[in-house]
Amino acid sequence: MKEKLEALRTEALAALSDIADAAALQELRVKYLGKKGALTEVLRGMGALSAEERPVIGQVANEVRAAIEQVLEQKQQQLQAEETNKRLREETIDVTLPGRQLPTGAVHPLNKVAQEIEDIFIGMGYSIAEGPEVETDYYNFEALNLPKDHPARDMQDTFYITEEILMRTQTSPVQVRTMQAHRGETPIRIICPGKVYRRDDDDATHSFQFNQVEGLVVGKNIRMSDLKGTLLQFAQQMFGEHTQIRLRPSFFPFTEPSAEVDVTCAQCGGSGCRMCKGTGWLEILGCGMVHPRVLEMGGYDPEEVTGFAFGMGIERIALLKYGIDDIRHFYTNDARFLTQFARM
């Protein structure tokens, strides 16, 4: 049996010297040291040995196992080192090669303009208020002095979900919710940015979904002159320090008196051009003093406080600021259009 063990060691070590990959090494490990391996088969015959021979043969068997395991371990380390060196050679990176320039992204022009508007009003001491886009008829119309039979409702083609639930047509409901949340306390100074929805055909100047920013100020002794001064400061920060504004009388159910606001044309400076159709002015928003009825619905006494409100479309401001001629450019995801704003 001793001769068998010695022969097994010689055979195994010779076989190990020719191993070239990890899979063959594992097969050889199982062949000689596994539960059904060659060494185990030899050791099964120890039962026939005398008591004096067993310790001697046992020691030889342990030496054979240790010798095979040692060479197996060395061979495994050698193969791993060779594999590592091979991968390093194959995956070598030439650090002297010029890098690949990745395309530069840009903030979407609508987001850019929205952020500018928010920054301007935050700088004036306003805070940002938000509300649900799926709104009730009460907050979207009735609380804004638009009862169910009011003809002005026809001006806003509305997406109704039920008779009382709809997609908001303006962000004005946020103003009413904010007034109610303040429970008659003043002052209130907020802007309400967000998406609004109207049943409109998409064309160069209209969309069924667009973005608005509305503002609300409520307090004591708030006057129309405060509104005009606020909007002038906004226009000059948005379009340039030489920009002027004018207010034209208008009608909105939730403000009285009401006005449309124009700014001097950014392209011609007010001298007249194709963009402003020769007038020198461009309309940007609507505004007015908060209607007493709206103040009452918000929980305020119109004899004690007054307020002003204004609302503008972000798309409209972006069209004028960047000289864009079609609102659909904002939504078609044309990279040629959007990458222009990476430089602004």
From TrEMBL:
Which PROSITE patterns does the UniProt entry name for this protein?
AA_TRNA_LIGASE_II (PS50862)
**What is the first-listed, main subcellular location in coarse terms?**
cytoplasm
Gene Ontology annotations for the cellular component aspect, listed alphabetically? cytoplasm
UniProt-listed SUPFAM superfamilies: Class II aaRS and biotin synthetases (SSF55681), tRNA-binding arm (SSF46589)
As its record notes, the protein acts as a catalyst of: tRNA(Phe) + L-phenylalanine + ATP = L-phenylalanyl-tRNA(Phe) + AMP + diphosphate + H(+)
Q: What is its EC number?
A: 6.1.1.20
Q: How is the cofactor bound?
A: Binds 2 magnesium ions per tetramer.
Cite the GO molecular-function annotations of the record: ATP binding; catalytic activity, acting on a protein; magnesium ion binding; phenylalanine-tRNA ligase activity; transferase activity; tRNA binding
Q: Which residues form the Aminoacyl-transfer RNA synthetases class-II family profile domain?
A: 111-340
UniProt xrefs under InterPro entries? aa-tRNA-synth_II, aa-tRNA-synth_II/BPL/LPL, Phe-tRNA-synth_IIc_asu, Phe-tRNA_ligase_II_N, Phe_tRNA_ligase_alpha1_bac, Phenylalanyl-tRNA_Synthase, tRNA-bd_arm
**Organism's domain of life?**
Bacteria
Entry's family note: Belongs to the class-II aminoacyl-tRNA synthetase family. Phe-tRNA synthetase alpha subunit type 1 subfamily.
Under the heading NCBIfam families, the entry gives:
pheS
Q: What is this protein called?
A: Phenylalanine--tRNA ligase alpha subunit
* Gene name tied to this protein: pheS
